[in-house]
Design a protein that fits this description.
The protein has about 500 residues and is mainly alpha-helical. It is built from 21 helices and no strands.
Amino acid sequence: MTNQSSAKALDGGWGWVIVVASFFCQFLAYGSPMSVGVLYPEWLDTFRQGKGMTAWVGSLVSGIGLIASPICSACVTNFGVRPVTVFSGVVVSGGLMLSAFAPNVQFLIFSYGIIVGMGCGLVYAATVTITCQYFDKHRGLALGIITTGTSVGGFICATFQQVLVELYGLEGCLLIMGALALNIMACGGPMRPLNFPEYFLKQKAALERTTELKKDTHHEKPPIKEESINKNTLSSVEKGLTVLMSDTKDPLSYENSFQGRSSLVKMIKNNKHTYSKYIDTTAELLEDRVFVALCIAIFLFDIGAFPPVLFMEDVARSSGHSDGTYLVPLVSIVSIMTGVGKLVLGVLTDLKFVNSLYLYTFTILGSGIALLITPIANNYAALAVLSGVLGFFSGNWSIFPYVTTKIVGMDRLTHAYGILMFFGGFGIVLGPPVVGWIYDCTESYDLAFFFSGACVLLAGFSLLLAALPCWDKPKKDHPRPDIKYTSNCDKVASVA
C-alpha cells in the first residue's frame, strides 16, 4: 500500500472497525485474567495448596505479558498483526481449556499463568500496533477505547465466571471461557495491515534474489558448431567441468552460501552496534535519579497494589463479610473503577495546570492509604468502597506514558518505557505470592495488607522525594501540542 493510500486510511473509515475488533480482542483475552480473583478461592478449595503457591497462577498471568513484551512486539513486527492475533486466540483458548484438566497447582501455573499470559501479551501488542497504524490525530482516543476492553472484560467476566462455577463447576467454567476466547481469531480477520510485515518483505526479497540467480545460472549461451570442436578441446572441457563440479557442485548453492556468510557478518556487526547503543542509552537513563526512583516506584507499587485484585474476594470470605450471595463481586468493582480511573486521570492530565508526575505520585499514595485501611474494614460495604478506591487509583496506567515522557523526553520514551515495564512485570509476578506467603505464616490478611500498603507508600514517597529537586532545575517538558503527528507508529506502539 502506498504512503498516499495509507494517509487516506488514517483517522476514520475502516480504522473504527479496527477499534471495535481490538476492543473485543482485549475483552475476550483479559476477561478471565482480570477477574482471576473469582477463581482463586475455587483453586484453594480444589488443590488444598498454600495461598502463596496458588497466587503464582494469578501473578504470572498478568506479569508474564509485561516481562515478555519485547518478544511479543518482535512477533508482531516480523509476522504481522493478523497472524499474531489469530495465533494468540489459539494460545489463550488453549491455555484456558488446558487449565480445566489441571491435576495440581504446578500444572495450573504453566497452563493458566504462562500460556494464557503469553497469549494476552501477544493480543495486547497486536491490537495496539494495528490501532496506531490506522490512527494519527485521534490515536489517543482510539487507544483509550481499546484498552478499556480489559477493564470491561474484568467487570463482566467476574460475575459471569462466578455464575459458571455455580452451574458447571470450575472445569466447566474454564472450558466455556476457553471456547469464548476462540472468538479472538474471528476478531483478527478485519485487521487488514497498512504495511507489510518484515517477515513478508524478507521472504519476498529472498525469493526475488533466488529467481535472479537462477536466471543468471541457467542462461543459455549461443550455440557453437560441432565442426569447430575437436576431440582435444572436448576432452579439456570435460576435465574442467569435472574439477569445477567437484569443487562447487552447485554454483547456485555456492553463491547462496557466500551471500549467507556475508549477511551473517553484516548482521553481527549491525547487532553489535545496536547492543552497544542500547547499553549506552540505558546507562544514561540510570544516571537520572528521578528515572531510577520511577523504576523503584513501579516495582514497589505493583508488589503492593496488584494483590488486592487477586485476594479481595478471599479477604471478604475469610473475614466472614461475604457468603457468596452478592450480585457484584469485589473483583468486578475493582475492574470497572479501573476503567473509570483511566478516563478521569487521562482527562486531568490534559489540563495545563496539572503536573502528571505529581498526579501519578498522588495516586500511589492514595492506594497505599487504602491498603492500610483494608484490614480494619468491618463489613462488605466498606470492602466494596475500598475496592473501588484501589481500582480507581490503579487506573494510573493511563498516565504512565506521560509521566515517563516528562522525565526522559520523547526521544528516549520507547527505550525507557521498556525498562519500566520490565520492573513492573516483576512486581506483578512477585506481589501476590509474597502476600500469600505472609498469610500462610500468620493465618491472617492483616499483616499482608499492612505490608502491601507499606510498599506502596514507600514507592510514593521515594518518587516524590526524588522529584523535588526538579523544582529548582526543571527538565524540558514536551507538551503534546508541539509533537508532530506521524504515521510511523513504531514508537507509539511500543509505548502503548
